[in-house]
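[agent] plan:
  1. take the single chain provided in the ticket
  2. run structure prediction with default settings
  3. attach structure tokens to the ticket
  4. add a short note for the reviewer (M.T.)
[agent] executing step 1
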Amino acid sequence: MAYCSSTCCRYNRFSNGVVKMKAREYGISIGSLPVGRKNDITDVLGVEVGHFTLVEGEGRLVRGKGPVRTGVTVIKPHGGNLFREKVMGAVHVINGYGKSVGLLQVEELGEIETPIVLTNTLSVPVATDALITYMLEDNPDIGVDTSTVNCIVGECNDGFLNDIQGRHVKEEHVLEVLRNTGMGPVLEGSVGAGTGMRAFGYKAGIGSSSRIVGEYVVGCMVLANFGRKGHLVVAGQSVDYVGPKEADKGSVIVVLATDAPLSELQLKRLAKRAVLGLGRVGSFVGHGSGDIVIAFSTVTRILQYPIGRLKSFMTLENTSGILDELFQAVVESVEESVLNSLFASETMVGRDGNVCPGIPKDDIAKVLEGIGKAKENITRN
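[agent] step 2 finished; step 3 output follows
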């Protein structure tokens, strides 16, 4: 069974009323900054998201045939021609055990010129090829009359649940979601690239959140596939005490969007703060973890064919005080995005009967509620 976005809606243009539960709906609030209307990355005006989900088969692994638990997720900084109107961007590699494509040129030039595609590790080549095809459709000058194109593809390993060697993500799947993104609300959990992912021993996947900082918005989306079992922290409380010790071999891709006018250097500084949000949920960034942050601002457009030799743009003053709040917004939205990826997911059985349990949402909510009441009593006394 292959489907775009969810079993209930063909495309992720809207959620059609299908809304996965977020952590806040269990009484779990993160940080002090206000959240956006949808509390996801598409609260940043112009940002579009889409998923293509592949779920098929069960039982014993037959390499190349299944079971299949994988997919593709796409984030667009804006709905126009990104090659002709690039956006300011930055990347930060927290730990480099990853196989992402396109990070080097972003690091060098501070520009993003394609949608950001997320998928599983062994589907990076086909996703990249499909993204090239998509970019050539509207830009036949690429590689002929002008430069080639820098495609950005991020990945995590979903091999515990998915027949990853089968490379079931095909070019048509990537192209379908690239052509059918929308402005939210964003579906979260076991959808798109997050279908076969897990974090802290629980089922995870796609998570998103946003924060309001004055007139600006910071939005975050994570592809969560990291964290050691027993190390999960929710709202500052360790909630997971049991389970065998295991290595942290997973990865996480963090995508940050903002409508604040930031330079590539300022975006780099935002991206660096993502590690604090990951740490607040219990990550210590293990040796085998590929932890990548991609950040962009939707404000400044960098033209492929500029009119003159000079360009000018506005950025926030470093001493304005707003940067500190934007840094806080990053930390809070990353932390909450990871939790949303867990709370929006349910138990999944994958290849060879491998089981990834859903997080015990109600139990955690009760534990946190009890801790909150105990603190209130101490304060009163």
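[agent] step 4 note for reviewer: The two ends are 58 Å apart (CA to CA).
[agent] ticket updated
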